[in-house]
Design brief:
Blueprint lengths: L1 H21 L4 H4 L19 H6 L6 E7 L6 E12 L2 E6 L23 E4 H6 L12 E6 L5
């Protein structure tokens, strides 16, 4: 008997739900059914090609290094522009000063210091992608910017 009581209760609930939806009034009752919160079409972010670019560095690449200056909580970014490749060594010109965003303009001729040279081995660049626990500035290479047509 308890099975029949449960079945009757279920039918009663279904019937009540149908009655309530029929008795709704106002604009919502006459509006066509809307799909439940459809996801917004947001373009996917560009693929991170940093690892790929580091295996094949090119003259003109800009290495983006994130760091937090001692005594500050704000992250900053420092650029290094590749100007020469020699065997396993990547030669760069460092930026004259840090910037607030990794997307900051690096195309101006006064951004980099051509009189200064900082050389990295390809292995150092790969290792630089991981923050060293001993580094008080929490520096790490976060991106390689490359002008590409692909």
């Amino acid at each position: 008997m308890s099975k029949s009581v449960a079945a009757a209760a279920a039918l009663l609930l279904v019937g009540l739900g149908a009655c309530q939806s029929e008795t709704k009034s106002g604009p919502a009752a006459t509006a066509p059914a809307q799909p439940e919160s459809a996801p917004l079409a947001v373009p996917a972010p560009p693929a991170d090609r940093t690892a790929e670019y580091l295996t094949d560095p090119r003259v003109g690449d800009v290495l983006v290094v994130r760091f937090v200056a001692e005594g500050s909580a704000a992250e900053q970014f420092y650029f290094y522009q590749v100007f020469r490749l020699g065997g396993d060594t990547v030669y760069t010109h460092p930026a004259r000063q840090p910037v607030a965003s990794p997307a900051a303009d690096a195309s101006r001729p006064d951004v980099f210091a051509p009189e200064a040279i900082r050389a990295f081995t390809r292995r150092e660049l790969q290792e630089f992608r991981q923050e060293s626990p001993a580094d008080p500035q929490h520096s790490r290479l976060v991106q390689v910017r490359r002008e590409t047509s692909d």
